[in-house]
Design brief:
By secondary structure, the protein is mostly beta strands. The chain has no helices and 9 strands.
Amino acid sequence: STKIRLDVMRDHFLFAPTGVCPTEINLQNTGFRVYVANIQTFELTIYNRYGQVVWQTNDPEATWDCRYKGSYVPTGEYIWRAKYTYQDSPNDKQESAGTFFIYF
């Protein structure tokens, strides 16, 4: 008899759009969301250009509607920072960050 060990790794990826238009007719690009595969824990924070937190979530499926305190934020560049772990490596904490542009 023969034993074979096969370790299978799940795909790991993170995708974030570089621009969103909250008033666009095409509903696919009206909010900001980070897409991460095989996620176990997740935290996403969005900052304005002054470093002020304008939105935060622990839900990897949540989409920010580009509003702060009930009103649309101004056109411009925003910063996102995501902290997360994958299901198959929960002790390996990951962190990613980037920028995106909101236009109307």
